Amino acid sequence: DAKTTQPPSMDCAEGRAANLPCNHSTISGNEYVYWYRQIHSQGPQYIIHGLKNNETNEMASLIITEDRKSSTLILPHATLRDTAVYYCIALSGNTPLVFGKGTRLSVIA
Amino acid sequence: DAGVTQSPTHLIKTRGQQVTLRCSPKSGHDTVSWYQQALGQGPQFIFQYYEEEERQRGNFPDRFSGHQFPNYSSELNVNALLLGDSALYLCASSLGTGVHMGYTFGSGTRLTVV
Fold first, then answer.
1. Spatial distance between the Cα atoms of B84 and A75, rounded to a whole number of angstroms
2. What confidence tier does A93 reach under pLDDT thresholds 50, 70, 90?
3. pLDDT tier at B99 (50, 70, 90 boundaries)?
4. I want to staple A90 with a disulfide (CB 3.0 to 4.6 A). Which of A2, A102, B14, B58 is the partner?
């Protein structure tokens, strides 16, 4: 599975959009991009995933570049409860989720 | 609709002892994966069970073993505990083993080995 690279930490003002980048330059054609987040003392929570089209659900939007080498997770109106570690994962087939270090997002009042 | 349930929530064991952790998957899910999360690190994959068989395994020694029951619940067993086994153990369930299905995680069991 492709390795992903994320910034270790980011800050975002409450109510503003949080844009979390992820680089996956070695991603192959059949690998999906998955995003999970982990709020302190809880298990990871699935957010969204996509292959090549942009995706949106009730939690977030996922923008994947046309060459699929990078993506951005967008939380449109960040709240304090969005403070968490966000993981970007590229995988295919039935391979298990492999977590990196993720991005620690701090939403500031 | 109950999510993934793990028990116990906290556990303290002595080095050399054995421990069993339990997981009930989300209703409708048939696959269970186990992860170990050390403090400050991302979760590390231990193994995955589907149809009562271990299907995939991460880089963990044989001291780590598991079981899946006909009702899809699962156990994680760790023998000969080491201080380094202290971690949060997470269970995740899914429908099938394909990546198209999102995983649902439990809140974990915090194991402390003293």
1. 36
2. confident
3. low
4. A2
